[in-house]
Write a structure and sequence with these properties.
It is found in: Cytoplasm. Pathway: Cofactor biosynthesis; (R)-pantothenate biosynthesis; (R)-pantothenate from (R)-pantoate and beta-alanine: step 1/1. GO terms for molecular function: ATP binding; pantoate-beta-alanine ligase activity. By secondary structure, this protein is α/β, with parallel strands linked by helices. Helix content is about 40%, strand content about 20%. It starts with a strand and ends in a 5-residue tail after the last strand.
């Protein structure tokens, strides 16, 4: 596996692959790899001739009081894991490579970015995501890009960018990968001490509880959410948000008659964690 730092280098490698009529897959990441990231790399490896993994802790998607400085970084470990999973190129640019002096463009997606994490963290978060992902698509030019469903809102935002800007890339969302006790894998889980780690399992249990009520036939949104709120309250967790939204538009739903995203965010100990389940009135959870 090659580690490259510049746009010129990664473009040259992709051009060489294209001359050989090879397909290109991109796995955009901020590093601190866990099994969720590795599952994306494996999917990319199965489907593409050339796998590019980007490793870039994107400063523009962090707020002023968020964890940019503390975000876990271990490039040597990440590079070894990416190579083990079949990555061909690790694109690990400096911030100045992506955002040189004078950079003045931001991509903003209306609507989708104004709820859930957009309301909780501010729309600047998804502006940063949309901008850096669009840059990566322009730099690498992948056939397919791979994202984790844990960041369900991010997936919808990226898909909207691709659709609205007519970008020639397919977005593949891969299933959430969980620990044995149900906690969604996240790079921020390293912030959890033993007590908060145990407490954090309530997020998935809350979603499971709500999903069980739904699967038993309940369609009223308030009743479904109440089941989740009870589990969180018992664990001493006050969520940033716990909401039911249309799974495609993220419009608020009061009754689940189609596909709905049941999404939660909460601060547990030193970590802000997110999780979600999709409820489908036609297909089950």
């Amino acid at each position: 596996m090659r580690i490259v730092r510049t746009i010129t280098e990664v473009r040259a490698a992709v051009r060489e692959a294209r001359r050989a009529d090879k397909s290109v897959g991109l796995v955009p990441t901020m590093g601190a790899f866990h099994e969720g990231h590795l599952s994306l790399m494996r999917r990319a490896r199965e489907q593409n001739d050339l796998v590019v993994v980007s490793l870039f802790v994107n400063p523009t998607q962090f707020g002023a009081n968020e964890d940019l400085g503390a975000y876990p970084r271990d490039e040597a470990r990440d590079a070894a894991l990416a190579e083990t999973e079949g990555g061909d190129i690790l694109f690990a640019p400096a911030a100045s490579e992506i955002y040189p002096d004078g950079f003045a463009t931001t991509i903003h997606v209306s609507g989708l970015t104004e709820v859930l994490d957009g309301a909780s963290r501010g729309t600047h978060h998804f502006d940063g995501v949309a901008t850096v992902v669009t840059k990566l698509f322009g730099i690498v030019g992948p056939d397919v890009a791979y994202f984790g469903q844990k960041d369900a809102q991010q997936v919808l935002v990226v898909r909207r960018v691709v659709r609205d800007l007519d970008l020639d890339v397919r977005i593949e969302a891969c299933p959430i990968v969980r620990e044995a006790d149900g906690l969604a894998m996240s790079s921020r889980n390293v912030y959890l001490d033993a007590d908060s780690r145990a407490q954090a399992t309530a997020l998935n249990r809350a979603l499971d509880g709500a999903a069980s009520v739904f699967e038993a036939g309940e369609r009223d949104g308030d009743s479904i959410l109440s089941a989740a709120h009870r589990v969180l309250a018992e664990a001493g967790i006050t969520p940033d948000y716990l909401e039911l939204r249309d799974a495609e538009t993220l419009e608020s739903v009061t009754r689940v008659d189609g596909d709905a995203l049941l999404a939660v965010a909460a601060r547990v100990g030193a970590a802000r964690l997110i999780d979600n389940h999709t409820l489908s009135a036609t297909k089950g959870r």
